[in-house]
Amino acid sequence: MRNTQATNLIFELSQPGRCGVCIAQSDVPQQDPAKWFPAGALAASAPPLPELTEPDVVRHFTNLSTLNMSIDTHYYPLGSCTMKYNPKRNERIAAFDGLAQIHPYQPDETVQGMLQLLYGLQDMLAEISGLPVVSLQPAAGAHGELTALMLAAAYYRDRGEKRTTVLAPDSAHGTNPASARMAGFDFVTIPSCSDGRVDVEKLKEQLNDQTAVFMITNPSTLGLFDDQVQEISDLVHEFGGLIYLDGANMNAILGITRPGDFGADMMHFNPHKTFSGPHGGGGPGAGPICVTAELGAYLPKPIVGFDDGSQTYFLDNDRPKSIGRVRSFFGNVGVLVRAYSYILSHGPVGLKRIAENAVLNANYLLSQVKGFLDVPLGNRCMHEFVASAESIGKQNGLKQPAMDIAKRLLDYGYHPPTVYFPLTVHEAMMMEPTETESKQTLDAFAKTLETIVQESPEVLATAPHSTIISRPDEVQAARKPIMKWTPKQD
Ligand SMILES: *Cc1c(COP(=O)(O)O)cnc(C)c1O
Q1: Which of 280-284, 324-328, 476-480 is the least confident region?
Q2: Rounded Cα–Cα distance for residues 90 and 277 (Å)
Q3: Closest ligand 1 atom to 145 CA
Q4: Dihedrals φ, ψ of 147, to 5°?
Q5: What's the CATH architecture for 88-345?
Q6: Is the C-beta atom of 163 inside 6 A of ligand 1?
Q7: Which residue among 84, 143, 171, 173 is best mutated to probe the pocket of ligand 1, counting the most ligand atoms within 8 A of its Cβ?
Q8: What is the pLDDT of residues 409-438, one digit of tens each?
Q9: pTM for this one?
């Protein structure tokens, strides 16, 4: 049941004279602030801080925390985001004092355990990606993209080549063009064929001696594995360009195939998607990148090294071609510890089973959903698929049916799928069940969806009906949030 009671602001709960803590009487004589500060720096009256007891405060924030959906409370099939269940074991390990309490300025010899762990993670990511040199520094997937494109720029500069263009298919995540522009490249979109794969003929038209990088998400955001990827990478390499693999969808291919084996030169992982890092709420995440030996020289420094002679781990700063730092200290280490714990606890066999079950679950859900929603790209998918609510909208006179269905799902206690992405499918609803859900959960979700698409247009167009706020103006809520409380005059 969703909590609909925590609607009062903390200011409205305030009662004059209530207090959560008692501070001892000060033994310092009181001073007149006007003696010490210029008049303009002093407020005319004390700020209207809320006055509450400790239990009032605890209840208020605990109630607020239940207004949001989370993986621990609700099924969360948000496509492209891999909202799988995060095993609590990884949380406990990341909180170990010996890991959580160390300081990044400690000398290397006092943090050998952490360095060994990070070195091990570099090794495991190299093995999983098929790309041998790893930087754990980037702070998110998008930051990994930017870092890798900066690497590509450094690589071409070093070779005296002037290459200006980054290309990606039209199904790419918005971070791809954004990263390309931030790294100083021009960006060109390559159309997809009607089957969702890259249009190789259109790609050929755009390849030339200005081509720096082709970015490909494989499996793509349409939930399809592009089997032309080897051909595409050979083509791009013929023109002297590099292949970047957006690894957000690694959950579908862990232990089955490796980007380094199908032609990628660089890639990022999203440990907060694939390796169960806590997810949502704005982070922190992480975006480790893996690259070929040739590109390894340009990686951000330091990376973790191991000295055979003294058998110790060290931060390797002696990297003259490095692009420098992209993140303070060593990146978001807490997320990296969870990824290390997750990968080790599954092992190679377990990782492969993750991918197999993620794909199995997505195909099962697809088979249940296609009876009442169009799935334009066919009957098979990888870890996710994209349905379209376009025809439901036409039948019911709904202007934005994907949004209406998504909003209505909130009333039934489900976090909605990703909607209106990828842009290539009209009224897109992108569903990614993940491997951690049971058949019962998927059945119940599909049944609810079926109920919803048969509901009256009036109910759908005004949903959700059970939440405190129904349809905020999302753009204004993000750009002009109301952050200031004004006391009611009465
Ligand atoms: C999530 C995602 C990204 C961006 O990753 P962040 O960690 O959120 O910065 C990039 N590409 C795809 C396909 C994604 O799904």
Answers
A1: 280-284
A2: 8
A3: 10
A4: -60, -45
A5: 3-Layer(aba) Sandwich (3.40)
A6: no
A7: 173
A8: 999 999 999 999 988 899 999 999 999 999
A9: 0.91
